[in-house]
Amino acid sequence: MRPDIDLRGYLDTRGATIVLTLSVLAIAAFAALGGLIQPAVMPQGTSDVEFTFIVLTLPLSLILPVIAVLMTAGEWSDSSIQNTFLQRPGRLGVLGSKVLAALAVTVVLVALAIGLAAAATWIGGELVGDGAVFSSFDSLLTTQLAVVGSAVLFGLAMGILLQSTVLGLIAAIGLPFVISTASGLAMVFGSETVSDVIRAVDLTAAATALGSGQATAFELLPLLLMVLLPAALGVRRWNRREVG
């Protein structure tokens, strides 16, 4: 596997420059929004690093799946995958390299988000408000990172399965929104059957439960249905799909 080749190939494109630039600007803006405004709206006048990162999960839950889909399915959409397979015949090796490259970009952006969340929280709490709260940092590293990680895994699964940037982006961004909306409606109408069905595919809720240590065996079902199964089908298709 050569993830460095796929990473360099992605970063050298104009599209990646635009996406990453907008991503960094969005992360910085939401970090400032979360960290600096908290003292004005919180009763105790403090700024909490976990709350700042929760605000940051909004752009991250869109940015990271988009990058995962673009890096795994992009070459199928622009037909350049044919040249890649001619130069690197091992299809599984190419797929593994793309996944590792996407994870590398994800780690860098998440690390940047955590750093900006901490900085904005400190500035908002110590310089603007009545103190910064970092005691919830452990919860940030478990619950919130689990939620972000679930979005990345779902984006990778959709990119591998659909092998189309358009379809992959629609699925990676649209399905979580539909599931979240349906979950809210099921709670409003009080239907336990519908709630259980939605819970079986609600990856974000399962990640939250897993990260907080309150998960049961049922929380593994969304991981199986929304990540492992589509990824397995995608790997099979990746190996057998005709090119050209």
From TrEMBL:
<keyword id="KW-0812">Transmembrane</keyword>
<keyword id="KW-1133">Transmembrane helix</keyword>
<keyword id="KW-0472">Membrane</keyword>
<feature type="transmembrane region" description="Helical">
    <location>
        <begin position="143"/>
        <end position="162"/>
    </location>
</feature>
<feature type="transmembrane region" description="Helical">
    <location>
        <begin position="169"/>
        <end position="189"/>
    </location>
</feature>
<feature type="transmembrane region" description="Helical">
    <location>
        <begin position="20"/>
        <end position="41"/>
    </location>
</feature>
<feature type="transmembrane region" description="Helical">
    <location>
        <begin position="53"/>
        <end position="74"/>
    </location>
</feature>
<feature type="transmembrane region" description="Helical">
    <location>
        <begin position="220"/>
        <end position="238"/>
    </location>
</feature>
<feature type="transmembrane region" description="Helical">
    <location>
        <begin position="95"/>
        <end position="123"/>
    </location>
</feature>
<protein>
    <submittedName>
        <fullName>ABC transporter permease</fullName>
    </submittedName>
</protein>
